[in-house]
Design goal:
Blueprint lengths: L3 E8 L15 H5 L7 H17 L4 E4 L7 H6 L6 H11 L1 H8 L10 E4 L9 E5 L11 H12 L6 E4 L16 E4 L8 E6 L20 H10 L7 E5 L2 H4 L10 E4 L2 E5 L6 H13 L6 E5 L6 H7 L5 E4 L5 E6 L1 H4 L1 H12 L4 E7 L2 H4 L9 E7 H6 L8 H14 L12 H17 L10
Parallel strand pairs: 1-2, 4-5, 7-8, 10-11, 13-14
Antiparallel strand pairs: 1-15, 3-4, 6-7, 9-10, 12-13
The structure holds N~2~-(3-carboxypropanoyl)-L-arginine (SUG).
N~2~-(3-carboxypropanoyl)-L-arginine binds next to loops.
């Protein structure tokens, strides 16, 4: 087994972070529509999480935000003239499309891509596929920059491959790592890749939600497994419980999280709980690991409370000195069921023996918790040395990014501000400087 570490690539929140209610099926996004956001605070909250986890010895990196507004999208939809004209016309005729073009949603990097580490793939390289996110207009073009960014960071083709995204059509709805978990006895050991889907496009009799959309299809998950060269004996596909999608569980990472040999999940997470656990146990036996299932019952934490607190949208991290820490948002402490449950969990003798809590309220109000904000990339020491080094979170990088945020970000954005041409100029200026700070010239196609 090779020595490997799990890097968490957190999304740096972009300067246009706002609440536009764009995600039907995501309760928080809907409830906070049109309230005022604070992009500066959002970015600083995310950076504080990265800094503390890096200081604790976890491998931590940053994924840069994307250029906003998305003028390419606006012009493709017929808004024309100068940039200022485009913004004014879009605001007048379709403020919701303008909000889509301005969304800072790439901050949720769990949706940026699916990643398979080299110990799982047939060719021994790390494989990435950017998610097409085709279920929502405001996210459907993220894959263009995500692919470009991943290719800039993981440019060494002897070690890394960044595939083209899947076709952007409902049959291949793909939301990336939010519906993908990897189990292994250690980050560098052969692992089991676990894909959870919400519907089967070509089998209308398969379970699917009635009220809210299922964003991930089985067909998409299978295509990723093929592209990444995964071994079928070490790959498990499971259907999400459609009833919980209809209660606001729009990604599996809102109701389950895994790490090492541990699956922390709600009893209602899967359409077939026993069958899913059984398939995982069998696959894990093939890599000499025993599944440790930490099940949360409905009478301990009702689904509505899991969704409101984001208990399962936590990061489960293997600590350098053994044991696992659960990284949760403050909202978990504020929910009576969840807070009580967490106390019993830590005292209960499972592998999870510590809680780390963060204030991520700005992101949480759009339905993005600690796990949404990060993309996991397990890398051997050689692979880590071969990736772009300028995005690794250090005290030095943190000390550059905080003043950068303070220089460029507003502390108040409400819907009417999206019509202000000055905001677009501020966003472009910020990213031009960020390219230099991260040592990534040409990262963006800035005009
Ligand atoms: N669970 C994971 N991994 N990611 C959370 C993504 C939240 C995101 N919210 C938004 O896109 C809201 C944007 C707005 O309404 O302004 C989404 O629904 O896709």
């Amino acid at each position: 087994m090779r020595n490997a570490r799990e890097f968490n690539f957190d999304g740096l929140v972009g300067p246009s972070h706002n609440y536009a209610g764009l995600s039907f099926g995501n309760v928080a996004s809907f409830n906070n529509v049109k309230s005022a956001s604070n992009p500066r605070q959002a970015a600083l909250q995310g950076l504080a999480k990265m800094r503390e986890l890096a200081a604790r010895g976890f491998a931590q990196a940053v994924l840069p935000p994307q250029a906003r507004p998305n003028f390419r999208l606006l012009r493709r939809l017929g808004f024309s003239g100068t940039d200022a004209d485009v913004l004014a016309q879009a605001y007048r005729e379709s403020p919701v499309i303008l909000a889509c073009a301005y969304s800072a949603s790439p901050m949720w990097t769990a949706n940026a891509a699916t990643v398979s580490p080299s110990s799982d793939t047939a060719d021994g390289r790390v494989h990435f596929t950017a998610a097409n996110l085709n279920n929502k207009l405001h996210r459907a073009e993220e894959h263009i920059q995500s692919t470009r960014t991943l290719r800039a960071l993981f440019a060494n083709s002897d070690r890394f491959v960044v595939h083209e995204p899947l076709p952007s059509t409902p049959a291949f709805g793909d939301e990336g790592a939010a519906n993908h978990t990897r189990f292994a006895s250690a980050h560098g050991a052969a692992g089991v890749e676990f894909f959870v889907y919400g519907k089967v496009e070509f089998d209308p009799s398969a379970p699917s939600p009635k009220k809210y959309p299922a964003r991930q299809t089985l067909e998409a998950s299978q295509a990723i497994a093929r592209l990444h060269g995964l071994d079928s004996a070490r790959t498990v596909f499971a259907s999400q419980n459609p009833d919980v999608i209809d209660q606001g569980v729009f990604h599996n990472d809102v109701i389950a999280v895994g790490n090492g040999n541990v699956l922390f999940y709600h009893e209602q997470a899967f359409a077939n709980e026993a069958g899913t656990l059984d398939a995982l146990r069998r696959a894990l036996a093939g890599v000499d690991a025993d599944l440790q299932a930490v099940r949360v019952d409905t009478n301990m934490v009702p689904v509505a409370d899991a969704v409101a607190s984001y208990l399962f949208n936590s990061q489960l991290l293997s600590k350098p000195d053994g044991g696992m820490a659960l990284v949760v948002p403050h909202e978990c402490r504020e929910n009576a069921f969840v807070s009580r449950y967490l106390e019993s969990l830590i005292a209960g003798g499972s592998a999870i023996d510590e809680l780390i809590e963060f204030d991520l309220r700005q992101s949480m109000r759009n339905g993005g918790g600690p796990a949404c904000l990060r993309l996991r990339v397990a890398l051997t020491d050689d692979e880590a040395a071969a990736m772009h080094q300028g995005v690794i979170m250090t005290e030095d990088l943190y000390a550059k990014l905080v003043p950068w945020v303070e220089r460029h970000y507003r502390d108040h954005v409400e819907p009417k501000d999206l019509a202000d041409p000055q905001l677009a100029i501020e966003c472009a200026t910020a990213l031009e400087e960020l390219e230099r700070l991260l040592g990534l010239p040409g990262l963006y196609e800035l005009n």
